[in-house]
Amino acid sequence: MDRNSVIGFILLGVLLVGYIVFNQKQQATALKEKARQDSIANLNKPKTFTDTSGQVASQPDSAQLAGEYGAFAGGATGTEQDITLENELVKIVFTNKGGQPQTVQLKSFKTSGGDSLMLVKGSFNRLSLQIPVNNHILNTADLYFTASPVKKEADGGQTLRYRLPVNGQADAYLEFVYTLKPGKYVVDYTIHAVGLENVLPASQNTLALQWNWEQHRQELDMENERLNNQVHYNLVEDDKHDYFTLQRTSHEKLDSKVEWLSVKQQFFNTTFIARKEPLAGADINTKVPESGNIVGQTFTVMEIPYTHTHNFTYPLEIYYGPNHYKTLKSFGIGLENIIPLGSGIFAFVKYVNKWIIIPVFNFLSGFIGNYGIIIILLTVFIRLIIAPFTYQSYVSQAKMKVLKPELDELRAKYGDDQQAFGMEQMKLFKSAGVNPLGGCLPALLQLPILVAMYSFFPSSIELRQESFLWAKDLSTYDSILNLPFTIPFYGNHVSLFTLLMTATSLVLAFYNRGMTDQSNPVMKYMPYIFPVMLLGIFNRTAAALTFYYFLSNVISILLQWVLQTFVINHDKIHARIQENKKKPVSRSKWQERLEEMQKRQQSMQQPRTSSKKK
């Protein structure tokens, strides 16, 4: 066996060992994750008891109840009953089993299929205190509370009280109080513990509030909905807002104080807000089912700061409602930050949205009911704002067009000598009084607005299920043809606004072809290739966004044609450039240094060229 064969076998062995180690780690991680999910899922299982024969007992005896429920054994059995709190915006059905919300319906909204929009439904959802009893954890969601009659408040609100006595004592109990005010998506949720200082361990300084929530499909695009299924939170320290996406993170533990915690879907969210004192921390586990109409599941334990007093009260607010910017901002705690108006390297565009786009959009929607017309007026408004920059860009393009024949002569004269061509090109621009960046700067100034729109339209709940022309819902793609198959990098449907956007982008590129270096294949064909490359990306975006880009392209084409035909006089520009050439050119210090550097490089290259010839 030669040397190469030995090396080959050694490399194969190393690869094999590496694969085995990697595979074992992956399996261990998968098993650990499965065990974690199983342990969390067990929290939702109802309590069962067995008799002496090992069979499930229909009626557990008193000893079993006392062992399992301790001081709360009186709430171990009962009959489940529902009570409804309702205003013009939300309808919440509560159950006495656990004294918790059973279903939450947003009355002003429907799912993409036309069904009632339920933020909470199904047995998976639960809101429960975890109380240590007899060396194990008891969940109040497994206990039957006693409900008081719904009380009508002076402001029109409704208050519901659920009480769980301790060993039948009237002066020791756990109470949950819910108040729904008129015209609000917020439920005041107060945890009231009376006389529990002798039930809970003396060392316990927090109460664990378990919140499990299952997010059901609400929108047309399930994949996009999962991308927007996130957990947001605001830490008291440095008033820091952060978030993570369920598809990318399965566990997050917050060890510092939390002001609010929100699970966000694409257009709706459920948020817990600590009003009196921040939460001491939170442990969040998530799961994204592989199939079905479940967008995601969250298993959250919030740590409530607890003091051993006879009468302990901890007030919270629960927001069940839409991701509406003005509504969320009204809380005054930064809750509006859950709406993605700009992130990453383009985080600065959120200020463009907050200070310009959203106020104008809200102003227009105040007296115009058709959101397609609002988008048209918004587009015109934006183009008016950037009109001065656009005009300067077109003038700069006209100057470059006039100089193009002379630039072509210089390019032919100097051939591959790019340094010499660059020096002569700068001299020509300087003598003609032309700024070569005059056409680029306005485009860069427009970029923040383009990116701001990319964030604003897909996040605007006002556009949800609003129709315009053939688009049935401006918040999602406008499919004119559903394909029976999926095209890679494109999708399984055809968006007409995206096609129109791409077509007008190609027309715009063709119209501006004279402004690019046609000798460079990349510069020559990239303006045509780029719109086609983006076709697959924008095919799944909101129809409002692609309609805006299409409309903006149409306005650009019309403006260029009008300005180039009726406003910008190429002959006058040519004459002015010729006059500028006759004027003495004053060179800046930067230009002098640049020319000196180019001359030095040329002088260094000349001896090398002459030595090669020898």
UniProtKB/TrEMBL annotation:
Recorded GO CC terms: plasma membrane
Region (Disordered): 579-614
GO biological process: protein insertion into membrane; protein transport
Record-linked InterPro entries: Membr_insert_YidC, Membr_insert_YidC_N, YidC/ALB3/OXA1/COX18, YidC/Oxa/ALB_C, YidC_ALB_C, YidC_periplasmic_sf
Keyword Protein transport attributed: yes
Domain Membrane insertase YidC/Oxa/ALB C-terminal as annotated: residue spans: 371-564
Keyword Cell membrane set for record: yes
Membrane-spanning ranges: 6-22, 331-351, 371-391, 433-457, 489-510, 522-541
Alphabetized Pfam families for the sequence: 60KD_IMP, YidC_periplas
GO molecular function terms noted in the UniProt entry: membrane insertase activity
Chain intervals with Polar residues compositional bias: 600-614
Location relative to the cell: Cell inner membrane; Cell membrane
Keyword list, A-Z: Cell membrane, Chaperone, Membrane, Protein transport, Transmembrane, Transmembrane helix, Transport
Bias kind Basic and acidic residues: ranges: 589-599
Membrane insertase YidC N-terminal domain sequence ranges: 83-348
Membrane topology field: Multi-pass membrane protein
Family: Belongs to the OXA1/ALB3/YidC family. Type 1 subfamily.
Quaternary assembly: Interacts with the Sec translocase complex via SecD. Specifically interacts with transmembrane segments of nascent integral membrane proteins during membrane integration.
PANTHER family for this protein: CYTOCHROME C OXIDASE ASSEMBLY PROTEIN COX18, MITOCHONDRIAL (PTHR12428:SF65), OXA1 (PTHR12428)
Function: Required for the insertion and/or proper folding and/or complex formation of integral membrane proteins into the membrane. Involved in integration of membrane proteins that insert both dependently and independently of the Sec translocase complex, as well as at least some lipoproteins. Aids folding of multispanning membrane proteins.
Name this protein carries in UniProt: Membrane protein insertase YidC
Species name: Chitinophaga japonensis (Flexibacter japonensis)
Gene name, Swiss-Prot/TrEMBL: yidC
